[in-house]
Amino acid sequence: MRIGVSLTAIRGENNVEDAITAAREAADAGLGDVWFGQRFDTDAIGLAGIVGHEIPGLRVGVAAVPIFARHPILVSSQAQTSQAATGGRFRLGLALGAPALVESTFGVPYQRPVARLREFLTALDPLLRTGTVDFHGELITATTPMSAAVAGAMPPVPVLVAAMGPQALRVTGELATGVLPRLAGPGVLARRIVPTVTAAAERVGRPAPAIVAIVPVAVSSDLDHARRAARERLAFYETIPSYRRVLDEEGVERAGDLAVIGDEDTVGASLRRYLDAGATEIIATETDLGGPAGRLRTWQALGQLMS
Length: 307
Hints:
By secondary structure, this protein is of the alpha/beta class. The chain is built from eleven helices and twelve strands. The longest helix has 18 residues.
């Protein structure tokens, strides 16, 4: 069982130093992967590269950077830099983002998202492999007047996509390394997400995609408190249509109801349901629902599952 933890919520006096400290704690707990989400403060790709450089052997990734208002050449440069900094231990996660946030924040229309995803991935692939591109699409133009390769950025950066809709899953299967479904329960994974993205990869002769399930996890003795905290913290996702659809498909009303909460044995058994549904690995989020002590207990429990 390959399990990583999200460090997105780690914030203190210095975001970079705090992330490095937290990543060391995760590694000491037996975890081999840490992930960073993209917010409006720290650059997730750069932070992952710094953390991976500081902690040899630790795999790092971002889950995930929205592609609207970003260009493949710039994202490639960032990703290759972090790949070189980590000696090949970096993974890039991309997302379409929520329409309301994209339009209100960046002032760009959220139009033809699946077509944009296809063009973005098509342009990004040769950049990560060769450092060159000459792509002229309907929505994106990307040409390199000089090499955009970063020395030391090998092997090519794996690219995963936070896709859950049928069309986005098909594009992901055809053009990316894997998928990053968030708040998609075992039922949705097994019935739709895994078969759809896997079939798309098979049609174009690509290897079976990585299925990296993003799951809220907390090892806790105070179950009522942890469940209440999960419902409060994750309520935001219930207002976003893409998440609302997968919650309804799984048959749950509240996003917090998908949180894996319990003692060490209960959490281990629940996470195995995701693996049985087709997940190849798991990113545990919201591990601090029980506070700093609860987070450490959760990380240690997840580290034990890795051993």
